[in-house]
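As a warm-up, study this chain.
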Amino acid sequence: MRAMVYRGPYKIRVEEKDIPAIEHPNDAIIRVTLAAICGSDLHLYHGLMPDTRIGHTFGHEFIGVVHEVGSSVQNLKVGDRVMVPFNIYCGSCWFCARGLYSNCHNVNANATAVGGIYGYSHTTGGYDGGQAEYVRVPFADVGPAKIPDWMSDEDAVLLTDATSTGYFGAQLGDISEGDTVVVFGAGPVGLVAAQSSWLMGAGRVIVVDHLDYRLEKARDFAHAETLNFAEYQDIVVELKKQTDYLGADVVIECVGAEADGNLLQHVAGAKLKMQGGSPVALNWAIDGARKGGTISVMGAYGPIPNAVKFGDALNKGLTLRMNQAPVKRQWPRLFEHIRNGYLKPSEMVTHRFPLEEIPEAYHVFSNKLDGCIKPLIVPSAA
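Now compare it with the structure written out below.
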């Protein structure tokens, strides 16, 4: 099969790999019909995530058709059209029993730090991802779900991470009716977090970014107010002005390890790797929230220390909530929101690339070229 293969920072190729085999009776092999590149894939591409090994195939957002099933699989059959959450989980451990699928204790040798994730380095288990023609899906009776007949492929693939994560970010904000919500980052997760904030009762939603085309999308897609942080000497001061000098009730941080806005932090975190990414947006969130407010962290960071203003968070009495989204737990609500027309994830898609052109797709997405917000990858396996 053809698959995207990592060859070092900023170096990816499309190469021949063996079609994955059934390794456990509860495995399934999925023929990928549509995949996506996530903003967190760029952290791997840029060399920010530890233990990203040569030869690894990225991709934690994908859907496909069941190609083969192990002898124990009961809920899927060959030919089923399925969507696969980015979490790999057993469904029976202490964490899975409580719906914390992203914290599963049985799928990653490094499980005390994180659960399993497709295509996201050996830090998260070393599983190859879906930017390929075929992918092995462990615990196939637990993770994948059949795609409803009424749902489009592009909506389905965006439910495997970006939409579920953005919705989860708004959930963790514990939004009360009338709250002012600030979202840092107008990528797909931030756009969905902003849109979902309205569904949860927000009275005002402000999205902060520095790319005009993404801010325009935030106004159009999420009906949010927008602020370009590059136009202000201090974006936190501007946010205070916008909120009667109190700060936001809820801040949702959807940027993560490669945040711009502070040259020293960006160089130390994103370039020199002296910390687990640049915490600029997270520190803005801490400074921009009102005392007693809530911060929801959806941005991805590496598992090494960051220069985060924890003392300020303590002194302001902030509630910080964060986790990798337990994707499948969000699906019942999201299915209804999409079916009723409240959410339309596919409207975020701006580019579609064949698998053979995935190096160009990463280049375009990484460099924010051609108004790229969400690129999809189309494999060619028959």
